[in-house]
Every structure is written in C-alpha cells, then in structure tokens.
What we know:
The chain is of the alpha/beta class and 189 residues long. It has helices at 15-22, 41-48, 65-78, 95-100, 121-127, 163-188; strands spanning 4-10, 28-35, 52-55, 83-86, 105-109, 132-139, 149-156.
Amino acid sequence: MSKKRVAVLISGRGSNLQALLDAEQNAYEIALVVSNVPTAAGLDRARAAGVEAIALDHKPYGKNREAFERDLDALLVQRNIEIVALAGFMRVLTPFFVNAWRGRLVNIHPSLLPKYPGVNTHARALEAGESEHGCTVHLVVEEVDSGEILGQAHMPILPGDTPEALASRVLALEHELYPRCLAELAARL
C-alpha cells in the first residue's frame, strides 16, 4: 500500500503538525505544509523535517476568501495531495474548498463534538459544569465542526481546572488522537 500524500494547513506554531510528523505509521506521509500566516513557526518545523513548506498569505486577497482558496486548491492539486489535514488553520473554509476536498478534508477540534463547536471550548466546558472534556477528529463539511466524527479522546475535568490547564491537557490528547485518526482515514481511502 502506498502512503497517501497529506498536506497540513496551519496558521501558528504547528504543535499538531509536529505530532503528525513524528507519528510512526505507514498510511500517510506529510508531503506539504501550507500556512496562511507567513511568519508561522510551524513552517520552520516542516522545513526542519525536510517537508516542503509554503506561505500563502491570505491578506492580499482581502475579503475574497474563495480566490485565496482557489489558489490554495491549485497548489494542492499541483503537488498530488490526496488528503488535507487542518492543524490550527484559523480560517473558516468556503463551500468551494470544502466540496473540492469532501471526504478528504480532516480537522481536529478541542472539544467533544457535537458539544462546543467554534472557539473558547475550554472556558465553555467549565462554565457548563462538564465533568469531562477532550478533543475530536472529524471530516470537514460546510457547517463548522459538524462533519463525521473519526475519533475522540476523553479526559476528566478536575477541581480547580482553568481554561489554560484544560487547553494544555487537551493538546496532549490531540497529539495522540490526530495521527491515529489520520492514518485510519488514509488507509480507508
């Protein structure tokens, strides 16, 4: 079985990217990393791992998100990418991009979906008095954080937990869950 070629889209430091790069498995290879933020530290992580890393700044596109995504899509197609993994890519994607990559566009989200889609998940879980929290890997569809769930990791919320403490513990779960779910998706396609 040949490894699926994966592009990882990032906007920041790339800690989930690092977990995907470090994972020992034979279903996928990280072939490309693209950031919409030219100064994202994750680009350096990719280059250090010998992976092509490209900055495609969204700012010159102004409010035309689809034009940005059409150029992004062309870049991915040109490099024979088979799966796109979002790892801290801080942009809501348009229907054009979601449909172009349907079934092959995956995201990790810091909550136990369908609870707490969107942002501020840790604070929202605490405010709601939840007893557990975690993360979800899911396929991306047009409605934010609502696609097919590929896997979840759970952990208890402890007395005295803060949003920052939850964020740190959930991130550790993400680093274990994301490579496993991505490998399962790659094997299935």
